[in-house]
Amino acid sequence: MKSINSLRLALFLSLTSILLPAIHAQKMPPLDTSSIEKITDVKGKSNKGEYKITIPQNDLDVEVDGFRIIPPMGLGTWIAFTPTKEGTMIMGDIILTENDLKPVQQEVIRQGLTISAIHNHFVRNHPNVMYMHIGGNGRLEEMARKAKAVLDKVAESRGHNPSANSVPDVPYTIDSKKLDDILGYKGEMSKGVYKYTIGRPDVALKEHGAAVTSFLGFNTWAAFQGSPDHAAVAGDFTMLEDEVAPVIKALVENGIEVVAVHNHMVHEQPRIFFLHYWGVGDAEKLARGLKAALDQTGKKKNAMTKMKM
User: Fold this and answer.
1) What does residue 8 show for φ and ψ, rounded to 5 degrees?
2) Euclidean distance between CA atoms 31 and 29, whole angstroms
């Protein structure tokens, strides 16, 4: 009898371990993306139950070392929404001028949201731009209204809608196939910028217990523009703590300038660091330098796979 009862208990525990996660997942309602779009007045993109709105900063005439920086080169404000047990978590990266910084961060705090990072992406950039990471948790409609208030404050500070006008393409004559072959990934072209977005499926990242995906900004990216012998590359590396030193070493040894090392989140598990870089020179040489740095990441499971933002 004892053996039968033990068997029944083992079967019950086994079924419970299988069914409870599924039941839990069913209790998490999908995002009402139409409400987000209506409240923020921005049409976003959905990806596997998450939703992201992006505002290209078309009004900022930024130049670095003679290259024009346009939204595909890292000049797009975004706010992403993901469902949680408590409702909705938002994460965002807000692009600010020096005049925007004070009023917008005051608005973030007024809305009860958090600021987890303020940093640069470039050096020698004219005008100077900064990137402010924000976050929050709550009801979907409430989070959408708070996000809208922050975006409205940026527009108020600038005196216009940052995305109102379009920007012309930048020159591009690089052989993209050669870049793909060197890096081992395929990029996407947008307005003369060829961009790679590389996820980290080898790391199960969570912030406040909620999964943080490539779509929510947990990715390494690289954006190229220019000609074969005079190209510019800008981007962001996402790294575990033991990867920081070898990635920096690989980039610097290959003539690529590390311009920022920082966090994006403060309650993430495991601990993650982000690094921004800038390089000018022969396009293929720059790509080989990036490949040397990429090879220093994801070694645990030898897994880094392209994921679309």
Assistant:
1) -60, -40
2) 7
In the DSSP assignment, the letter for residue 282 is -
Q: Do residues 128 and 225 both lie within one domain?
A: no
Number of structural domains in the chain = 2
**What's the average model confidence in pLDDT over 146-163?**
97
Q: What is the 3-state secondary structure (H, E, C) of 112-176?
A: CCEEEEEECCCCCEECCEEEEEEEEEECHHHHHHHHHHHHHHHHHHHCCCCCCCCCCCCCECCCH
**125-126 and 62-64 beta bridge pairing:** antiparallel
DSSP 204-258: --EETTEE--GGGT-EEEEEEEE-SSSEEEEEEEEEEGGGHHHHHHHHHHTTPEE
pLDDT tens-digit series, residues 193-247: 999 999 999 999 888 888 888 888 888 999 999 999 999 999 999 999 999 999 9
Sheet with 206-207: list strands edge to edge.
Answer: 210-211, 206-207, 268-269
Sequence-ordered list of residues with C-beta below 8 angstroms from that of 120, at least 6 positions apart, any chain: 128, 129, 130, 131, 259, 260, 276
| Neighbouring C-beta atoms of residue 54, cutoff 10 Å | 17
Residue-level pLDDT at 284: 98
21: helix, strand or coil:
helix
* CATH number reported for the structural domain that contains residue 88 in this entry: 3.30.70
Per the CB < 8 A criterion, the answer to whether 212 and 296 are in contact is: no
Claim to verify: residue 189 and residue 79 sit in the same structural domain: no
Range of the domain at 189: 176-294
Backbone Cα Rg of the chain = 21
Flag whether 303 is in a domain: no
The Cα–Cα gap between 54 and 45 comes to 9
Q: Is 200 helix (H, G, I), strand (E, B) or coil?
A: coil
